[in-house]
Amino acid sequence: MSDAGPEVLVGLLAEESRLKVLSAIVLGAAGEPEIATATGLDAKTVRKALERLIKGGIVDTTPQGTLRVVTQRFKDAAQRAASERPQLRPEELGATADQAGVLRNYLVDGKLTHIPATRSKRLVVLDFLAGQFEPGRTYPEEQVNYTLGRFHPDYAALRRYMVEEELFERRDGFYWRTGGTFDLSSERADRRHRDG
Fold it and tell me: What is the CATH number of domain 6-83?
């Protein structure tokens, strides 16, 4: 059972009596009588729950004969879940190759872990964020907040930085993009398509 995934652990703990038994062991109950006292469960229910938890590999017996939780199973399951989770690469979010090199240090699954303190790195992040907005289009503040908030909860700081760094201009609660990297090849293609 040691290679079972997190879904197996969740399944084992989805039943209330097993969760209570495991909790009692975590809190120091060393045997069935102590578990029954701590949980208020009858001996038969405690025994049945213990059998499942031992079979599932999350409880075992120490050399001294006391019960213990196999915490390594939880660590292994967490690592396995993290390794199996698909990771969004900055390029998949529209980052240029130059931006992606910096963004890999700040973006995890499409979310900014933090706003860089170093201005040069912050400019790369802000340039990427500016790319989320269409040039020549005016946005109400709520929409700017929503778009920036998809990347980081402190959208007000991001918005302020973007205005300070002249990537955005603001007037009467509306914003428009005034700077940042532009993909000229797609701009030309869009113009040709519009002009027919």
Answer: 1.10.10.10
* 53-99 tens-digit pLDDT: 999 999 999 899 899 999 888 888 888 876 776 567 788 888 888 89
Q: Are 18 and 37 in contact (CB under 8 A)?
A: no
Residue 101, Cα to own-chain centre: how many angstroms? 20
Q: What whole-number distance in Å separates Cα of residue 170 and Cα of residue 151?
A: 21
Model confidence pLDDT, tens digit, residues 34-60: 999 999 999 999 999 999 999 999 999
CA max distance for the chain: 83
| Architecture per CATH, 90-190 | Orthogonal Bundle (1.10)
pTM: 0.53
The secondary structure of residue 189, as a DSSP letter, is H
